[in-house]
Design goal:
Layout (H helix, E strand, L loop, with lengths): L11 H16 L11 H7 L7 E6 L5 H15 L3 E7 L4 H13 L3 H4 L8 H14 L4 E4 L5 H14 L4 E7 L12 H19 L2 E6 L26 H7 L2 E6 L8 E2 L2 E2 L3 E9 L5 E8 L4 E3 L13
Parallel strand pairs: 1-5, 1-6, 2-3, 2-4, 4-5
Antiparallel strand pairs: 6-9, 7-8, 9-10, 10-11
């Protein structure tokens, strides 16, 4: 039977063939998901896939940027075929590199930049070596905020420069993009989110958007605040972001809300990764631990000898 060709539509038989081809490539290892810095997270999500749109959400100061930096550095080191674009609208690019130094050297950024205590020559050499280790990574920074049209245009331009490589866009964060004459901030966020869907579907790039929370997490009785973690409705501009995302990771630090226990866990340096949405997997919470003074996040609570919680 000769099937009519309909412009703009794909027949199911063509889609079946393409699906089988892709699954076979995963089966034979020609394509593999990209692993994150966390074995616990990898166990729950398998990894990050081409064409994923991911949101990392959290209240200000919960460690979103540190989390994202650990993630993209891991991806850049393990997978040189990736091209990382860090749209760093919240801070200067050099400050992100300083955070990487801080994590590698276990020295707070403020100590690296101290005007009162000079950095030792030994530590400065270690810093130079840490910089040399990442100089050849396929990573680029953009500091100047853009609107959704400028962002989408630049992503397409970058893909033409790297036609055979996967682009990883990290936008820090949603609300710091500029306006394209949108009437509300929610509309601005929606436009960027939808632009992300277009480019990830067409180019198979990976988009990681950092998102703030609205004030709903702080509603309720004093004893209730923070006890339930983060809900989808707490994400700023939530409806469009939730709909457009393949994976939503919410970072919750119960200690911020003066809670001493969270679901049976001591909250000291606890950072909970909540999987609020996963298209093909379970929703759950993952207990991790942080020392944000040195921009480190751990799967398990380090011993006191490994980590100075008093920094």
């Amino acid at each position: 039977m000769v099937r009519p060709s309909i412009k703009g539509l794909e027949h199911v038989s063509d889609v079946v063939t393409e699906t089988n081809r892709i699954i076979e490539m995963y089966k034979t290892g020609l394509i593999k998901p990209y692993k994150t810095f966390s074995a616990k997270l990898n166990d729950k999500i398998t990894g990050i896939y081409k064409g994923d749109q991911i949101v990392i959400a959290g209240r200000s100061g919960t460690g979103k940027s540190a989390y994202a930096l650990m993630l993209i550095k891991e991806l850049a080191v393990k997978y040189p075929e990736l091209v990382i674009i860090y749209w760093t609208f919240e801070m200067k690019a050099w400050k992100n590199i300083a955070r990487i130094y801080s994590s590698e050297m276990r020295i707070p950024v403020k100590d690296l930049l101290s005007a009162t205590t000079q950095l030792s020559e030994e530590n400065f050499i270690s810093l130079i070596n840490a910089g040399n280790d990442i100089k050849d990574l396929n990573m680029y920074f953009r500091e100047i905020p853009v609107n959704y049209m400028q962002w989408e245009s630049k992503v397409r331009e970058i893909q033409k420069i790297f036609p055979n490589q996967t682009i990883v866009n990290v936008v820090d964060h949603f609300r710091l993009t500029t306006s394209a004459n949108e009437r509300t901030e929610e509309e601005k966020i929606t436009n960027l989110s939808r632009a992300g869907v277009r480019v990830k579907n067409e180019l198979e790039c990976i988009n990681i958007f950092l998102s703030q929370l609205n004030r709903k997490i702080e509603e309720g009785d004093r004893t209730d605040v923070g006890t339930t973690g983060i809900l989808q409705s707490y994400i700023f501009g939530g409806d469009s972001i939730v709909q457009d995302s393949d994976l939503i990771l919410a970072l919750h630090r119960p200690e911020v809300y003066q809670l001493s226990r969270y679901k049976g866990l001591d909250t000291k340096n606890l950072i909970v990764t909540q999987i609020l949405k996963q298209r093909e997997g379970e929703l759950c919470e993952i207990a991790m631990y942080h020392n944000l003074a040195i921009n480190k996040i751990y799967d398990n609570l380090p011993t006191q000898g490994q980590l100075n919680f008093n920094i």
